[in-house]
Amino acid sequence: MRRRLIVAFIVIALLSAVASSWFHTLIEAYRLPGWLDEVIFGPGWLRNLVHTLPGQPAPHPIRHTALVFFGVEAGLLLAMIAALAITASRRVLLPVRRLAHAATRMSGGDLSVRIEPQRVDELAQLVTSFNGMASALEDKVGELERMAAHARQFAGDVSHELRTPLTAMTAVTDILHEHPELTGDAAAAAGLVRQEVLHLNRLVEDLIEISRFDAGTARLVTDEIDVANAVGQCLRARGWFNVGTDVAAGLTARLDRRRFDVVLANLVGNALRHGGPPVTVRVGIRPGGAGDEQLAMEVRDHGHGLPSAAIPYVFDRFYKADTARARSEGSGLGLAIAWENARLHGGHIHAANHPDGGAVFTVSLPLNAPGSVPAARA
Amino acid sequence: MATVLLVEDDPAARQGLELALRRLGYGVRTAETGEAALRDFRDTAADVVVLDVMLPGLDGFEVCRRLRRGSDIPVIMLTARGDDLDIVGGLEAGADDYVVKPVEPRVLDARIRAVIRRTALTGSPAETYGELMIDRGSLIVRRASRDVSLTPTELRLLLVLSGSPRQVFSREQLLGLVWEHDYLGDSRLVDACVQRLRAKIETDTSQPRYIQTVRGFGYRFGPV
């Protein structure tokens, strides 16, 4: 800022020097009153002084000294204006800039920002208001975060507590169900109890899994995996022999084996249950966003596809695209868990409808899961 | 038929699991606390212990450790959370395997049978590898002429690995061969068991001669 002023000062001084000589000829023509002439261009004796200096060729007595005098005058005037401007800015601009800076830091997430009130004037009022607002905001956000943490903790605790009564029920439900002397309605009732107990188990299992993601305690346990082998095992273990696969041979990736299995099983299970045959699984390598390579797994079916209104919500917890179908085999958390598992790997899942019909779920995973705890130990 | 010592503090869970185990054909003795389990353990003549991790007083890990001091009886941990802490803690305390509550009777049955099977092997006569002597017929293992006391799982792991010396086994394979788990078994079971086995038979666990790690592949016996 200062440099600019100095440069401006020099430029204006030079310009005024040039202008004044032109100006002076005008004045001569229009006859400026004597006192004004002396104020602008200096007293007469100063002009004559130059005239008497030895060794000087006879200069135009008026022009040179007048020019210099005017130049110095202009310069001093400018310097005064500059000084005033700087002082004014110091008083007003700096606090405003500090306020703007603080607001920026706050919107960046730092809610502890406060400003020191510096003087008692209108700006101080603004500073006090700002500090007050920042305090209130910090308190509110803190309270909301605590509430969210409590809710997550509660969900996790509830699920855990549910396991205890479920242990006894799961252990004995077979005994009832397979009792030879139970017939008719009683047998049907026992069968129903068994079915629902197992359903409850799955639900609690999924709830606890989700609560681990929320609590941030979910961990990756990674291993170098042959992808084709893992896909095959996943499908065979569940008896899904009618699912087509297209996996590049020899493809390996560093992944959490169990979580990979959960994701694939969920997507294929959904495709088989809610989509339509044929269901195919295709895995290959794709260039990732950051210039690296990623594992891309596509699960596709040929059913009706996803209702387009549902697509943005399909990974939400307990979201059901078809609300008329209140009953589902799973817990309603399958896709949410799949999504979290992909994210834990540093990847993501994308849901869409294939242009030729049916739904396509695409899982992108880095070939090497980040920050992973390798299963191998020294 | 085998006898199970069930250590579980929740009354409903204890009763339910006892009913299920009896129906599967096991003899069942129960204990409500870790202290009771340790006190009555000898009298029960159990073949396998099913031990809850969360017990009042002495927790499951401590009970397992104390059991291990005097016995190689198979121990299966019952864990409610299936969290890392539970699993790793149980394995380090010397458990052979674990199941997560609520557990379906057929799963528990499969684990119990698998762990009992590990003690019932017959094989060829004694083999010697350096200081280590393995007798497959009598299931005796000696190091430098002193008997080594191994749990059924540790013994089974050693027998599988030494049965094919220099052959590399992946964790997945070992989970299937030793624990009879499916492809999604917890590979930490293998790592924990290897560590315990090394502590018992290796002279220098930081430079293992018998159970060697093959980085990126798994484990192998020797070359000695």
Short description:
The complex is a heterodimer of chains A (378) and B (224). With 378 residues, chain A is α/β, with parallel strands linked by helices.
Largest interface: A-B, 31 and 29 residues
CATH class wording of the largest domain in chain B: Alpha Beta
Tally of discrete structural domains of chain B? 2
Compute the number of structural domains of chain A.
3
H-E order of chain A: HHHHHHEHEEHEEHEEE
What does the radius of gyration of chain A come to?
A: 41 Å
Distance between the termini of chain B: 40 Å
- What's the CATH architecture of the largest domain in chain B? 3-Layer(aba) Sandwich
Work out the helicity level of chain B: 40-55%
Q: Which residues of chain A form runs of ≥5 with pLDDT under 50?
A: 374-378
Secondary structure elements and pairings:
The complex is a heterodimer of chains A (378) and B (224).
Chain A: H1 2-30, H2 34-41, H3 44-52, H4 61-107, H5 122-177, H6 184-215, E1 221-226, H7 227-237, E2 244-247, E3 252-256, H8 257-274, E4 280-287, E5 293-300, H9 334-344, E6 348-353, E7 359-366, E8 373-374
Parallel strand pairs in A: 1-8, 2-4
Antiparallel strand pairs in A: 1-3, 4-5, 5-7, 6-7
Chain B: E1 3-7, H1 11-23, E2 27-31, H2 34-44, E3 48-52, H3 60-70, E4 75-79, H4 84-93, E5 97-100, H5 105-117, E6 127-129, E7 132-135, E8 140-143, E9 146-147, H6 152-163, E10 168-169, H7 171-179, H8 187-201, E11 211-214, E12 218-221
Parallel strand pairs in B: 1-2, 1-3, 3-4, 4-5
Antiparallel strand pairs in B: 6-7, 7-8, 8-9, 10-12, 11-12
Task: For this entry, give a set of tags.
heterodimer; A: 378 residues; alpha/beta; Heat Shock Protein 90; five-stranded mixed beta sheet; three-stranded mixed beta sheet; 58% helix; B: 224 residues; Rossmann fold; Arc Repressor Mutant, subunit A; 2 domains; five-stranded parallel beta sheet; four-stranded antiparallel beta sheet
Structure description:
The complex is a heterodimer of chains A (378) and B (224). Chain A has 378 residues and is of the alpha/beta class. Chain A has three domains: 2-107, no CATH class; 163-215; 221-374, Heat Shock Protein 90, CATH 3.30.565. Helix content of chain A is 58%, strand content 12%. Chain A has nine helices and eight strands. In chain A, the strands form two sheets. A five-stranded mixed sheet of chain A has the order 2-4-5-7-6. A three-stranded mixed sheet of chain A has the order 3-1-8. In chain A, a hairpin with a 5-residue loop joins strand 6 and strand 7 (359-366). In chain A, helix 7 crosses helix 8. The longest helix of chain A is centred in the middle third of the chain and has 56 residues, at 122-177. Chain A starts with a helix and ends with a strand. Residues 374-378 of chain A have low confidence and may be disordered. Chain B is of the alpha/beta class. Chain B has two domains: 3-117, Rossmann fold; 127-221, Orthogonal Bundle (Arc Repressor Mutant, subunit A). Chain B is 42% helix and 21% strand. In chain B, the strands form three sheets. A five-stranded parallel sheet of chain B has the order 2-1-3-4-5, with helices on both faces. The longest helix of chain B has 15 residues, at 187-201. The mean pLDDT of chain B is 88. The chains are: A alpha/beta (378), B alpha/beta (224). Chain A binds chain B through residues 160, 163-172, 174-175, 198, 201, 204, 208, 217, 219, 221, 223-224, 233, 237, 257-258, 261, 375-378, and chain B through 10, 12-13, 15-17, 19-20, 23, 80-81, 83-84, 101-106, 171, 182-184, 187-188, 191, 213, 215-216.
